[in-house]
Amino acid sequence: MKDHLSTAITLCIVFLFLSSHPFAIGSEVYPADRSGLMATPAGHDNYTRLQPVSSSIDARVTGMSTRVQVRQSFRNESSAWMEAVYVFPLPENASIDSLEMTIGERTVQGVLQPRDKARKTYQTARNNGQRTSLLEQQRANLFSTRVANIPPGENVDIAIAYQSAPRYSDGVFSQRIPLTLTPRYVPGQRLQPRNGITTAAIDAQGSYKVATNGWAEPTDLVADADEITPPMTASATMNMTEIVITIDSGIELERVESRSHSIVSTAEDNLWQVSLTDQRVPMDRDFEINWYPKHGSSPHAAVFRQDRTDADSSESFASIMLIPPQEFFNEVSTGREVIFVIDTSGSMQGNSIIQARQALQLGINRLSVADTFNVIEFNDSPRTLFHSAQAANQENRHYANQWVQNLYAEGGTEIATALRTALLDNTRSSSGESGSIRQIVFVTDGSVGNEDAIFRQLQQKMGQNRLFTIGIGSAPNTWFMRKAAEIGRGSYTYIARDTEVQEKMLALFHKLERPVLTNLSLNWEGVAKPEIYPATPPDLYAGEPVLADARWPHAIGSADLVISGNHGGRQWSRRLQVKASQTHTDSPQPNNDNRSTDGDQGLYKLWARRKIDDLENRLLLGADQNNTERQVTETALNYGLVTRYTSLVAVENEVVRDPAIEPLAKTAVPSIIPAGNTMHFPQGGLGIGLRLALTLIFSVLAIVFSLATLQQVQELG
User: Fold this and answer.
1) Domain definitions of the chain by residue range
2) Are 646 and 114 in contact (CB under 8 A)?
3) What are the φ and ψ backbone dihedral angles of 610, each rounded to 5 degrees?
4) What is the pLDDT of residues 423-469, one digit of tens each?
5) Strand duo 314-322 + 301-309: pairing
6) Which CATH superfamily is domain 337-512 in?
């Protein structure tokens, strides 16, 4: 009997260890204390270090457009030739159009090609021993750079340039520059071991895959998991950067501030120069800068114009921003059903779960007695506070606050199951009032790798619900948060620090409690109808502007734009004049109506990015994959943008390495674990594995004790 018990206990320990270990799903996790650029020659287990030398970010804001150049420099201090892979985040609306590679005395410009062609170009140059680099999009906000044949003892500089658009909300302009990422959760079953097939075999099959050294294996739900999971390091001083920003907003500013970093700013003739107080800072959190218009200078509307002319054609572009009158949002809606969903997965450990609890409790306390509510927490699986939404009376709110206070973070990030639970009909208010406004407030860092699958789920299941996402932490997945809110016809809020929770949540509930401006339409007079995105403007909440980007296939003169919508059964409209070759800003301040467009604002790149987003959104509605890929590729090549179907590749003509005698090391550049995050390993589907393991353990125990009982019976007999 004792032998059986010993066996059972041993099996329990083994199964618990395997189910809780990061390698249980085949993930290759880099220890957090490894720092520097790690390289391993093919077929060897020893690592070589490639030390970073410098990093810099230079940005210029012009009106509603931001031009950013990111330059990173590394030095190969080893004796091996190297191939480096660097996975990094950018803003979700970034339009990347430039890649420059400098190694030693030589500089090579990138050329835009269809993705497969660019990969083959890179592969051929790499195998030939030529210096080469490849820039690819992995997600709308996640990119990778590969550089092959870096000589021993030399530097490599990679410069990337992109166009982005500042955000305007509640009277404040802001620009985020991501510097690191929260490791994405990778659900699903592993497809095959990374070492199960050689690079040579892959090449022989006619497809191409560069070794990425990502910590996760591809799964049936995230086929490119190894492409989006760079190694992470806890060394905050490993990746350092300096940031310089120039702001030319076109309106008078009260102040410029950053809540993420300490900055120094100076202003002259409405031109603001901003730099970091410490000059260089760790890349352990996103950089965010805000600029505040002076009282009376906040624009009611702004139209930015740009013409693009070459030898064969001439185009006109316009970027429009309109802020509806504040009196439209003075009324308060009642009788809402609010479903709070909070992420308690492992990636939320540390400050994130603290901020999430605070945000949720503020939201619960803000509810009125006419509202109903429920709370859903999730990691590997969802758990609801009530069986269905309950009245927001004092007793229920108190009980909910206590429940939320006891939540902690661990496990996987099964967002899809949490959303499915929130959207189920049986979470409707127990009062049966189906006509009430139903709002889902989703608090998460969005660290998932299966974003497209979740977007498709939302597209199919949202119905009349409204989804409001709250991004938590120092480096959340903002693309997921923004896109989910867009599909859910809600809005997105970003909370990076504890001190922001109250301010940001009050602003969010100001939106939730007020009527929405719906059925927006844009009509043009005096000019042909342009190709405009978004094609259908979204609903508008308090403090948010109408944003649109338009293109005409020929040069245009002046035109009038009429924007109209419905507000609580009342019609509203506004007329704007789009003047030829001028930027028009309509504000309460006199003598500030017109300003000449100065320099290349890159409006055509922002328009192209919007069009590509629209095309990819159609995939969620069942559009043909091949036709969408063709249209996206054509648009990207016409306007020079990196997309999921197009990449930038740079190749130097000279052969600098003899592949026959000089092996090539493979490298992976770690990202810094976001500030305030205490997770030690990336999160995989371990919770599901743990439950399966526990089931197996108890099954083994049952068999063991059954055998023991049978043996005792036989002995007694």
Assistant:
1) 2-23+684-716, 28-290+638-672, 337-512
2) yes
3) -65, -40
4) 885 444 444 444 567 899 999 888 888 899 999 999 888 888 999 99
5) antiparallel
6) von Willebrand factor, type A domain (3.40.50.410)
